Structure formats: structure tokens, C-alpha cells
């Protein structure tokens, strides 16, 4: 999987951009995408703001648009101060998914005007660029270096209710590949997915993604295989437990036997480690398979900062303790799909400041933590169940299938209805909750990438500075 650059935007921003670029009069329209950057294995441009150029300020026709240079003045200053990349985007009402001679001529005039206000990366030189959108919402983008030479953006990814990929080598827009087909597998080969937590549920998620044909898997887990893991982590052996092998290394070795062409990056670190965060930020998609509130908190923040869709999965088995003995109340699982600019795990109450504090207290002072639980100070006292492989299989399948359904739509109902899926095996119930169920609060850290402080957390920035 070789990709030089990706332009990423939230589905909500894409809808707003589309409505402005195609007002219904058949004429071209324009906007500015202000992007932050994540530079690692490849360049990711994160659309932080969409600035719509007023129609009345432009000279518009069906094949050409001209807009005043002073529209860019405020963005030039911000680009220099904040290190933003500016992508100038306009519509092609005729449906041409490419750059015309007129577009080339316009870019040759405006890009030198923008470049004094950029901060090109050493050895890369690509900073500002342009993009076009067609009436079906498809996009193509390119970047320029200081010599005014263009370089195509390999992928424009839009993460909303559905997940849409617009590849730089597409000659025309068309329907998404059908789920479960060779066309789906061909596209999955070009994607990278990070699985955070590779234990009971995570090992199953990673195995399914591997066998679906994902081109690059980044697996992150600091833990090692123990004897008590062997009943729920796929592909682990008694020898792995005896040797204390890292869970991620076990998965990587197993994947190499069945899918040697898949690139597996194994990171035996906690997600709070700088290396783990930087690796995960390079992925197109995130799967959160951790059983801690802090892990979910960090994955949630990463998805916000790096504009990544997050599929978070959890399994719970609440137990009651009546006089006659312990009783299982529920055998339940949950899959949350968190889209950029949508409601986060925090917005949905998956974790709270109180739960994070209590979890921290459990680590540093177990006795005090036990006292708080006994006194009822910790909300949600249900225990995270020891992983049961049959339940984990169900939860993992729901999570991976939710990704498939959003990237390769097949459902009769809109994906917006499936922000959360819950199952209860005791009562035989399946519940789905829509995005409208939750109230989204936009974070000031949205699309900040890996800027300082890291993920908006000073404590992580301190670790980055000392590592």
C-alpha cells in the first residue's frame, strides 16, 4: 500500500461544501479548505475549516469562475501563523472529474501568490493546492510545490454517515463497490486500519479485517500473552504464554502465514505513548477494542484531532448478587460509530470525568477505589466481563460489519440510524440508536492533528517532549 497524500474531511463539511458549490443554477462556485497536516508515513491534510466564497463576489458561468484575490488575504495570514494548507476548491457542474486547461491556467497564477505564506516541509515542498467537485459529490485534489509543479492527491476521504473514498486515479465518478465483492477487496487493499487493543475482542476484529483484505493493519497493545488469555485471543499458544510474547507480535506472525502481502505494523505500546499515537494517526480508520475508560478517552481524542472514523466495541456481563448467589443480568455488547463532527464517545456517556478519575484511582490506590465503589461514588459499577469468546465474536462481527455497511452501503435504512448498536443475549434484543439520539459538542481540538499539546492533553505533550 503506497500512498503519498490524503485529503480528509468530515461528512458534515462535505455536505455544506456541496450545497454551496451546487446552488442549482448550473454555474461554478468556489470555497477554501483550510487544512492542518499530519506528516508521517504519508501526508494527510485535515480539513479544519470550510470557507465559502460568496456567489455574488464571483464572476460565474457554467465553465469558469473568477473570484477576487482579496478573498484569500485573511487566509494567507492564518496559513502563515497556523501553518495551514489552503486548498482552493470549485465545482464542475458538467461533471468532469478532473482539472481543465482553464483550471491549470488559474492555478499557475494563484499558487505563487499563496506560497510566501506557507511553511513547506523539508524535502517535500508540497503545501497549498486545488480541488474540484462534481454534481455527485466526488472530488479530486492536487498539491503544488514551490516550483509550481502539481502532484495529485492520492485519496480524498469523506467520513460521515457513510464512508466515501475518491481516488486520484479515478477517471470518472461512479457507484461505490458492492459489499463482499472483488471490487471491495481491491479497494480494501489500498486502506490502512488501526486496531487499538488486540486482546479478546480486538484479536477477532483484526483477524476479520485481515481476511477481508485490508492492505495495512496497525495493531496497538502494550500487553503480553498470559495463560489466562488463551481462551479468548485468537492464534495464541501455550508457548506464547510461557514466553510472554507481545500480543501484537503474535498477531503479526500469524498474519504473515495466511496473508503475507498484508502489511502489519505491530506497536507494543500503550495508546498514550507518542509512538502509538503517531502510528494510529496515519490510519484511515480506527477500531477501538480496549476495556478501559482511559483507552477509550484517548481513542476518542485521536479520532477528533486526526479526523478519523472510530468504531468502538465493548462487551459487558453485569452480575447481580441476591442472597441465593450471583446471577447474570445481561450478556450484552455495544458498537459505537463515531464520525468526525458527530457525537463523540464522551458526548454519548461511554466515559465521563468521574469514571476516568475512578479508574485512575484504582491504579494508584486500589483500596481507596474499592471504598468509593462501596459507597456508590462511582457511577456505573458494572464490571467489564472476562472476555467470553462467543460473545466477543458477536461484538467483533457487528463492529467490522458496521464498517462494511458504511463504506459499501447495502442497508435499506440510512446509516445515520446506526450510530450505536446494542445487543442483549439474555432477552434476545437488538437495539439501534441514531446519531440524532446524541448531542454533539464540537471540540476546540478538532482537526488539530498532532499539534501541541498532543491530543489536547498537556500530560501527553510532556511525555512527547521527554521521549
Automatic annotation (TrEMBL):
Lineage: superkingdom: Bacteria
Residue ranges occupied by any JAB domain in the UniProt entry: 17-113
Keyword flag Protease: yes
GO molecular-function term, one example from the UniProt record: metal ion binding
GO process terms (BP): cyclic threonylcarbamoyladenosine biosynthetic process; proteolysis
Keywords of the record: Hydrolase, Metal-binding, Metalloprotease, Protease, Zinc
SUPFAM superfamilies found in the cross-reference section: Activating enzymes of the ubiquitin-like proteins
InterPro entries hit by this protein: JAB_dom_prok, ThiF/MoeB/HesA, ThiF_NAD_FAD-bd, Ubiquitin-activating_enz
Coiled-coil residues: none
Protein name: JAB domain-containing protein
Organism, scientific name: Lysobacter spongiicola DSM 21749
Lineage: Bacteria, Pseudomonadati, Pseudomonadota, Gammaproteobacteria, Lysobacterales
